[in-house]
Amino acid sequence: GESVGLHLPTLSVQEGDNSIINCAYSNSASDYFIWYKQESGKGPQFIIDIRSNMDKRQGQRVTVLLNKTVKHLSLQIAATQPGDSAVYFCAENIQGGSTLGRLYFGRGTQLTVWP
Amino acid sequence: EAGVAQSPRYKIIEKRQSVAFWCNPISGHATLYWYQQILGQGPKLLIQFQNNGVVDDSQLPKDRFSAERLKGVDSTLKIQPAKLEDSAVYLCASSLVRGGGETQYFGPGTRLLVL
């Protein structure tokens, strides 16, 4: 079954504020994590990824933090914009064995950005 | 670069009928994935192809679902006979190679409603 979950199903922020979306995972063998953004009527879109040998990775306006001790992942979006409104999923993978390439997705967090 | 193409975008059928979905991955991508996304949930992997061979179909309900990728490019996913609980979005994704470290690119999905 799925081993990835999210703490909150919805998050509302004001335009310009920072957003933090959290994710908990239960499989300690997972060694690769990805954040996807899914807008209404579209497929998931890759945002950023992180491997288990890192605890932080930064992209353009986004930062992913990984805490392996408590099996927690977060996505930080700086200066949130209306175009960031979407459902955000974390996904995990074990890079090896028969499940290679199989991503396990959480349920998702709906981010709404108010002007 | 063209993205992953899927058709049809929407399909409504009655239970016990059959339905087929088509996917054309990004050119040159060896690995192709079919996911099922039930409303309010994250995508769940159904089957994974490496070129024209199946490498992971452990989560595919094989009594009613089938998929093929005969020439290692396009793929079709079929449901026969459909049940009410098959109502979902069916997403196709592709990646250059198989592996958790390789970004999976998703198509827009096919929305299936079984009445």
Content-based structural category of chain A:
mainly beta
Structural class of chain B: mainly beta
Number of strands of chain B: 11
Q: Please give the number of β-strands of chain A.
A: 11
First-to-last CA distance of chain B: 37 Å
Integer average pLDDT of chain A? 89
Measured as a percent range, the helix fraction of chain B is under 10%
Strand content of chain A is over 45%
**Large-scale geometry of chain A:** globular
The mean pLDDT of chain B is 93
- The arrangement of helices and strands of chain B along the chain is EEEEEEEEEEE
How would you describe the shape of chain B?
Answer: globular
Question: What Rg of chain A is obtained from the alpha carbons, in whole angstroms?
Answer: 14 Å
What percent of residues of chain A adopt helix (DSSP H or I)? Answer: under 10%
Characterize the largest beta sheet of chain B: strand count, sense, and whether it forms a barrel. 7 strands, mixed
Uncertain segments of chain A of ≥5 residues (pLDDT<50)?
none
> How many H/I helices of chain B?
0
Question: Main β-sheet of chain A: number of strands, strand sense, barrel status?
Answer: 6 strands, mixed
Give the end-to-end Cα distance of chain A, rounded to a whole number of Å.
38 Å
